[in-house]
Specification:
By secondary structure, the protein is mostly helical. The protein is built from seven helices and no strands. The radius of gyration is 14 Å and the shape is globular. 26% of the residues are buried.
Length: 119
Amino acid sequence: MEIADIIRKARNEKKLSQRALAKLVRRSGAAVAQWELGQTMPDWEIRPLLAQELSLPLAALMPEIAAAGGGLPVADPMVLAAARLLEQFPESVRESYLVQIGAMADALGLGKGTPPKGR
């Protein structure tokens, strides 16, 4: 399932409007609409909060890493492992680790609001 479908399905199950979800994750309603249409992807920094608000595991919002053989750099499983580890930490310390994960993702050329090539 594509990230757009995952977000839309989870939002609908929570009975949230796009605008309500946007407010919870401190983004615009237009941003949520773009995610759900597959036009853009949520930035790395917002994915833990988005996963929390939608009651999803963080890995569900990282399909570009989780996909095996997706033409991504070999180091990507390390980013996924870091994200899974992040879920185990108390929310109060997640932000500092999230910054580090975002830096790793940026170094790998992932995220930045656009779907990876070949998707």
